[in-house]
Amino acid sequence: MNIIVTGGAGFIGSNFVFHMLKAHPDYRIICLDKLTYAGNLSTLEPVMDNPNFRFVKADICDKEAVDKLFEEEKPDVVVNFAAESHVDRSIENPQVFLETNIIGTSVLMDACRKHGIKRYHQVSTDEVYGDLPLDRPDLFFTEQTPIHTSSPYSSSKAGADLLVLAYHRTFGLPVTISRCSNNYGPYHFPEKLIPLMIIRALHDESLPVYGDGLNVRDWLYVEDHCKAIDLIIHKGKVGEVYNVGGHNEMANIDIVKLILKELGKSEDLITYVTDRAGHDRRYAIDPTKIHNDLGWLPETKFADGIVKTIKWYLDNEAWWQPIISGEYQNYYEKMYGDK
Ligand code: NAD
Ligand code: TYD
Q: Cα of 301 to ligand 2 centre, how many Å?
């Protein structure tokens, strides 16, 4: 089986590449990635020499490059992780989110139509459902929850989802979609909550908590997400959407306090800053469908996963140190300077 994995130099995509090469040693995995600020070739170093792996630097919006790769590799499956993924950046500059997340998805699916494919899988997010109130813990996102987005990021992901389902209905493209909750684990880019807080706490720098810190996210260890996608591309039903999440809701402030405790740092580092515009209050996935239909269950408990993740950042400074110097400094100053 030949699988094109787009965005495989990013956080979840790289974990998926590692998972697939290990779980299916007879598969060929081709990673297509533009290497934006969020893509890091050093992440893929451990598999660069694997004869079943190929890396290609290209933009998913580049029709010619995508077409050429499909011609060369004749993929059976395409798994699309490539995206602009950070909500705060989408508030600063929505356009690149529309280009990559929507146009890029259409370019990939057009190539799938042209060359024929067994499966196109779209990696989506629970953020397409909008948010839930904090005072209704009985409510969860199911696959039937209406799309109701809050940020340019989630709107671009929702636009892509609608396009994917339209390509299935109109052109008969064999698609599946997974909508997962917040991931955490190794190789998470340090602009996102968990790695940002770990690295800043290690440096005894202030920890910027948005608003009242009570916003809730439903955290899933990245390996569990990768296993869910592996199951969906093999056993999922064409045309279906699968929610992925592990009933692991945590308020942001509790995560930040947990990280401080694990690192033996003071809670005095916590600094409440201006809230994110349009900030979603609570995400919570109902994973009943993927459990009942495909037998998926998360394997890593948050208490274990967060300790493993903190340890990974402690052990892998060589990965994140080059990232947080240079351009990243300018980003931090621009985004947090006047908060
Ligand atoms: P990431 O930002 O860490 O990685 C994105 C990758 O895509 C990078 O390697 C980047 O270079 C690449 N990329 C960006 N634009 C590209 C383009 N035009 N052409 C080719 N490659 C391009 O993102 P992530 O957190 O790993 O998320 C991966 C996918 O999973 C995204 O589609 C995201 O919406 C979805 N998702 C993420 C989470 C989460 O918690 N991180 C949760 C649910 C769903
Ligand atoms: P993030 O990791 O950006 O993921 P998402 O917005 O896609 O859920 O943020 C997770 C939560 O943490 C979200 O409620 C915003 C909050 N947050 C902070 O409080 N401070 C920060 O510096 C960041 C990056 C996020």
A: 21
